[in-house]
Amino acid sequence: MQPQPADNAARSVIDIAKLSLTFETGDGPVHALSDIDLNIGAGEFVSFIGPSGCGKTTLLRVIADLEAPTGGTISVNGMSPHEARLARAYGYVFQAAALYPWRTIAENIALPLEIMGHSREEQAERVRRNMELVDLDGFERKYPWQLSGGMQQRASIARALSFDPDLLLMDEPFGALDEIVRDHLNEQLLKLWAKTDKTVVFVTHSIPEAVFLSTRIVVLCPRPGRIYDIIDNPLPRDRGLDIRETAEFLKVAHRVREGLRAGHSYDD
Amino acid sequence: MTEAGTFQTPSRSPFAGLMSGTAGPVIVVVAAIIAIWYLAAVLLNTPFQRDIYQRGGIENPPLAQLVADTLSQPRPVLPAPHQVAEEIWKTTAEKSITSKRSLVYHSGVTLSSTLLGFIIGTGLGIALAIGVVHSRVLDKSLMPWIISSQTIPILAIAPMIIVVLNAIGITGLLPKAMISTYLSFFPVTVGMVKGLRAPEAIQLDLMKTYSSSTAQTLWKLRLPSAMPYLFASMKVGVAASLVGAIVGELPTGAVAGLGARLLAGSYYGQTVQIWSALIVAAVLAAGLVSLIGLTERVVLQRMGMAR
């Protein structure tokens, strides 16, 4: 089913209300997240953008149950994040590919399938399908170190997609890659999103990346980490890299930049 | 650019080719050790030789005779390398393996308890490490004991292990192997604790997002990450095992094994026999360590971790 952007009844995947997270450190409490309210509907592509220390990665980790909030409520697929994690509700892509060096690319992609107990035939079929999806067919028997950084990150995306979660959580997946590879992977990711109809939550610190990819952009600011602005992206879902030259794109990018500047209180 | 060219021409030094491979440096080191050994043998055996000359009424023998005589004493303070080599040849190649005077037979006895102790020690080490990594209680309670166990001198505890085990009816190979175990489990435990904790936070988080069980994380992530650490600590452990087996043969008055040869040699002042047993033990240890090194290469290659 194709979720309609205008459909108000679109199923809500992530509901966050009054969420806060405070780390207790030796120097006193650090308010990593404070008073976060956010709903993400099925089929959306939402980006979290903000300067370092704004809590964007922490917020993603809270959704993934890798971090526990200290206040407020959050539900993922109508469950607590913990239940959602146990139900394997999401695929997570980290900043680094984190492929296991003793496994070939195909074996790396099969890792979650092995853990989740899929049959051998099922594993082989899903590995084949997802390697094709990220354009890595032919590299099944290579080891991670034999692949470039961009290809490794594509393999890690295939791994996150292999068990077909409806929700994809991506934490600056292309942050360590060069501009050209990044553009290419952004384009591929959009196609993949269109093809698979997944809900994507994407953390980035690149304005063009956020505007190019997202249906909605959440601008966060630091100390304490909080939401400064939520921007609906009016660009059509079907977009190519050229769209970055259009006035509409630049207008959205400008608003994001303004938000980042205003939310970031430079003392100097 | 011409200057760069001259740098690339091979050096004319006669040692350049010798020192470039693996064999060259090893040969040079061995030659140096043998030379120093001969020098030391002459110096250490001279006082006794002078006594003999005095008693025989020989005054001021020529230097060449003194050197030749110091290197051919039946019970020298320090036997010359060729005396040890001759003894090893006589007690290995020229003796049947079943003979009580064959060093091959004695090595076999020591080797079997070394290997049994090493296998038990490695198993125990891995098991302890898995426990320590997964349980805070074990980490806090067990680790200090594991470390303090190694501060007890093995020579002090070895006879007691043998006596206690004998008292409860365990005799033969096992008591000796226990001492090997005692020495070899420690490096394996320490190495494996480090190895099982080697995965990065991101790799552990990844397993968590799959809600993988502790056993799955151990099997699919922690153990493979620990393999290089396991082999490194096994190399230390196997050498310690051999020391343990030899030490275990000393207090028991064992009749067979390299330790028994050392003991018999020292009873009768047979220094050549002691040194032969020592050299054979060293060769055995080197062989065991390189066998593990070879296994490491093959295993890591097959795991795709060697490049």
Write the layout of secondary structure elements.
The complex is a heterodimer of chains A (268) and B (307).
Chain A: E1 12-25, E2 28-41, E3 45-49, H1 56-63, E4 71-76, H2 81-86, E5 90-93, H3 105-115, H4 120-133, H5 149-161, E6 167-171, H6 179-196, E7 199-204, H7 207-213, E8 216-221, E9 226-232, H8 247-263
Parallel strand pairs in A: 3-7, 3-8, 5-6, 6-7
Antiparallel strand pairs in A: 1-2, 1-4, 8-9
Chain B: H1 2-8, H2 14-20, H3 23-56, H4 63-70, H5 81-92, H6 103-134, H7 136-149, H8 154-167, H9 173-196, H10 201-209, H11 214-249, H12 258-267, H13 271-302
Helix pairs in contact in B: 3-4, 5-13, 6-7, 6-9, 6-11, 6-12, 8-9, 9-11, 11-13, 12-13
By CATH, the topology of chain A is Rossmann fold
Strands of chain B, total number: 0
Number of helices of chain A: 8
- Number of strand segments of chain A: 9
Please name the two chains that share the biggest interface, counting residues whose Cβ lies under 8 Å from a Cβ on the partner chain. A-B, 26 and 20 residues
% residues in beta strands of chain A:
25-35%
Commentary on this structure:
The complex is a heterodimer of chains A (268) and B (307). With 268 residues, chain A is an alpha/beta fold. Chain A has one domain (43-69, 79-263): P-loop containing nucleotide triphosphate hydrolases (Rossmann fold, 3-Layer(aba) Sandwich). Chain A contains eight helices and nine strands. In chain A, strand 1 (12-25) and strand 2 form a beta hairpin. Helices cover 78% and strands 0% of the residues of chain B. Chain B contains 13 helices and no strands. In chain B, helix 3 (23-56) crosses helix 4 and helix 12 (258-267) runs antiparallel to helix 13 (271-302). Chain B has two domains: 2-78, no CATH class; 103-302, MetI-like (MetI-like fold, Orthogonal Bundle), CATH 1.10.3720.10. Chain B has helices at residues 2-8, 14-20, 23-56, 63-70, 81-92, 103-134, 136-149, 154-167, 173-196, 201-209, 214-249, 258-267, 271-302. The chains are: A alpha/beta (268), B mainly alpha (307). Chains A and B meet through strand 5 and helix 3 of A and helix 10 and helix 11 of B.
